[in-house]
């Protein structure tokens, strides 16, 4: 379902859509993003989904266009992996795609 989101207001529509999708996932929830910068609420939703048996996978680029963002992205890995989220880095090149399937 299409939705609109804007940094110009205080609504986090995009995050709410993703959290709802993650919370409703029964079998799998796969995400691909060039920049994994997530809130505590999103981290919690991903970890809870993995804990209840959902196959949660996140794919990020292994080759970056912004070194600082790459380091921030990687700072989330340990906490996610420790709770059963599978994290992959796509290494053939930089991938700017955003994708979610649940």
Short précis:
The chain has 4 helices and 4 strands. The chain has about 100 residues and is an alpha/beta fold.
Write the element-wise H/E pattern from the N-terminal end onward. Answer: HEHEHHEE
Instruction: Describe the sheet with the most strands.
Output: 4 strands, mixed
Summarize the amount of helix as a percent range.
25-40%
The number of helical segments is: 4
Q: Which structural class should the secondary elements be placed in?
A: alpha/beta
Number of domains: 1
* Strand content range: 15-25%
Mean pLDDT value: 91
How are the strands of the largest sheet arranged?
A: 3-2-1-4
What is the rounded distance between the termini?
13 Å
Give the overall silhouette. globular
Number of strands: 4
Give the uncertain stretches in residue-range form.
none
Radius of gyration: 13 Å
Can you characterise this structure?
The chain is of the alpha/beta class. It has one domain (26-101). Helix content is 37%, strand content 20%. It has helices at 13-24, 40-51, 67-75, 77-81, and strands at residues 28-32, 55-61, 86-90, 99-101. The protein has a four-stranded mixed β-sheet with strand order 3-2-1-4. Helix 2 links the parallel strand 1 and strand 2. Helix 1 packs parallel to helix 2 (40-51). The longest helix is centred in the N-terminal third of the chain and has 12 residues, at 13-24. The chain is globular. The chain starts with 12 loop residues before the first helix and ends with a strand. The relative contact order is 0.23. The model has no long low-confidence stretch (mean pLDDT 91).
